[in-house]
Amino acid sequence: MTGEALVVCEAVPDVGAFTLRAVDPAADAELVHGWMNDPEVAAFWELAQPAERIGAYLREQVGSAHSTPYVGCADGVPMSYWEVYRADLDPLRHHYPARPRDVGVHLLLGPSAYRGRGLGAVLLREVAQWLLRTDVYAERVVAEPDVRNERSVRVFERAGFRLLRQIELPGKRAAFMVRERA
């Protein structure tokens, strides 16, 4: 493994401790491959590919100068995939008025048993608070879910994000959403 788990929240209802650990492409490729090939996830992540391609994608994420991939764990059990990135350094910055130290977030809940229970909003709220707490220079967390993914947009709204506008990105029309530092 690539390091200790980061405790985001010690007591999430129905989950227990929620932690993030850095992705290990070799160890996590099969796990993330299974999640990315779930039809509900694949419809929006568009990474329904063989495990070798997912491994390469994870290596690319780990090697990025501005993005960090994590596996989210509920009481030590892997159940989500997260990408945390400097949105002000990402190509996304060309599609909205970026501010210095904007933090971007992508997420997916892996096993279907974790979906449809309101857990995504709870975890996203905790992760956004954690990101703002641990980066004193960041003033907001941004996200750009596909507008067709109404379920995801609602999750972001319930987690305290607000829709600023729709933006055109390569491959999708996105709901540009922001959660400001309180």
Overview of the structural elements:
The radius of gyration is 15 Å and the shape is globular. It has five helices and eight strands. The protein has one domain: Aminopeptidase (3-Layer(aba) Sandwich). An eight-stranded mixed beta sheet has the order 1-2-3-4-5-6-8-7, with helices on both faces. The model has no long low-confidence stretch (mean pLDDT 93). Helix content is 31%, strand content 33%. Helix 1 packs across helix 3 and helix 4 crosses helix 5. By secondary structure, the chain is an alpha+beta fold.
In short, what is this structure?
The protein is of the alpha+beta class. The protein contains 5 helices and 8 strands.
